[in-house]
Design a protein that fits this description.
Rossmann fold, 2 domains, alpha/beta, six-stranded parallel β-sheet, three-stranded antiparallel β-sheet, 40% helix
Amino acid sequence: MKIFNTRSSLQQYLSQKRSEGNTTGLVPTMGALHKGHISLLAEAKKYADVIVCSIFVNPTQFNDPKDLEKYPRPIEHDIEMLINAGCDVLFNPTVDEMYQPGETWHLDIGPLESMLEGKFRPGHYQGVTQVVFKLFDIIKPDFAFFGQKDYQQVKVITRMVDMLHMPLKMIMCPIVREPEGLAMSSRNVHLSTNERANSILLSATLYNVKHQFGKLTIDELKQLAVKELTSNPNIQLDYFEIADADTLVPAKADTQHMVALVAAKVGNVRLIDNIILN
């Protein structure tokens, strides 16, 4: 695996690979890699010749400086995982390499920005689009791979790609779960044993809603989920929503494709999860 810390050295290498007729797949991450990330790399290998994984803890998408500070950065462990997974290239830039002083960014992505996650993390998706645009611009991938766990993020980035007519294909990959159902996340390391046990209620509720889908109305499904989640005093629910799978506006009875999404705090750890209903 080749490791690059500067955009110029990476671009030079990828330009050479492209001239040889190779396609490129990008898996953008913030590190603290787990099996979920590795599943994205495995998927990428089905599509592209050269697989690039980026590790960059992006400061512009954090609302809370403390959250940024405590974000795990086990780079040696991450490199080992990437080598074992057969990754071709790691791009691991510094903040100074990615951002100029006083740089600004705003992309009007419409209502997607302020609903669900956007409501609880104002400005988050501006930071996400800013850094992903940079990565796409530097790497120029043919394919980009994102996990379904961050469902709204996938929709936001897809919107950006469409708006800016970027020549790449977005691939959303399924959620990878712990044996007990918890969606894999870099934040899971912060859960205590007790908090981990409580957090399983998020995925259990989503699966219950999917099981009851078609038997109950959307309102009844939402009431069922909220009742289940709020019955546990260790879970602080931010939202549970059944939404149009494309626009993320609240679903109606005649909505063609639906997704159920949940966000909650378990202890001090904020978790998100979702399940596609139909």
